[in-house]
Description:
83% of the residues lie in helices and 0% in strands. The protein contains 16 helices and no strands. It has helices at 3-25, 27-34, 38-41, 43-62, 68-87, 92-120, 126-154, 157-178, 190-193, 200-220, 223-230, 235-263, 265-282, 290-318, 323-352, 358-385. The longest helix has 30 residues, at 323-352. 50% of the residues are buried.
Amino acid sequence: MNRIVIYILTIAVFLTATSELVVAGILNTLASQMQVSVALAGQLITAYSLAFAIGTPIVVSLTARIGRKELLLLAMLVFIAGNLTSFFSFGFTLLLISRLILGVSSGVLLVAAFSAAAKLATPEKIGSAIGTVILGFSTAMILGIPIGIALTDMFSWRVIFLLLAVGSIVILIGMALLLPKIEGDAPVPFRKQFTVLANPVILTALLLVLFREAGNSIMFTYLTSFLDSILHRSVSSTMFIMLAFGIAGAIGSRLGGSAVDKWGSVRIMVISMVSHVITLGLLPLAIRSFPVAITLLSLWVMSMFIMGPATQTYFIEKAPQSSNLVISLNTSVTQIGLAIGAGVGGIAVTWNETVLYNPWMASAALFLAFIAAIISFQKSKKTNSAPSVH
């Protein structure tokens, strides 16, 4: 496995993740400068998620036979165009269009990066390769968002997207020079590819992703509010705590990739899901002890990132002939789950007039994800044990 190539893919994912996550951190500034309400500015996040969720599987399916290197280069070029459009957006409509461009290009690049990493790695190292690529997300949490907020305070939010474009050009050159030729998936008709959804193993695994991401989003969207109003942390303390969570996520990504290679995707998914449910289920009971509460939250964040490599590897194992499509569907369902979770979490906060009970709602959704996972594993066993017909 060429580690330099994997690291290039990881940096590319870091850039795309930063372009997605940073908007939430500078939303008030964007709303003020664009002279729109915060609620309307929030549609920049919605537009990105919808473009990501809807556009990615369509584009990935249409480009299935294109080599992964060519697809990565194309996605990176469009991503650069999206960032430059953001930089030159002096009206809200153009900025909204740029988010659509960034959403689709980021989704396609992510799927192609996972596919390329899996094909470049030896079978026993697929988990580690994917775990390294997922580090791009946790690094965006650790560095991308704080740096974006700092750049906005010192200069302008436009500088963020200019630097993302410049960084992407460097990565584009690195990809062109260092990436080997990587074959795409075997050509399969568009309609036939989507018959993968008729596979109960894949369908229930996608339900697992939907409930898991919704559950995590119910909690994560309002995490800073929880730290503030429930655990009574100051703004400066919250910044350091979020940094610590990002580090926990980075550790989780590395541990998850190695653990998948050693013990298999199913075992790691089970351990991670149980940890999700228990840590958030206990959290409201531990608010009087900050060390205990922060330990539970750290374990929850680490479990989220441990689960990433395991889930991606599981999809690749169960649908090797349509791995690109399944991974893209996985990322789309992830975006839908995040949107649903944020909405449900908001309703819970309004209903209860506190974020105290969000961990329990999140834990309930994650328990549904655990049930979906068990069903998928059982159906997979039945499929594998069924006698072949000749």
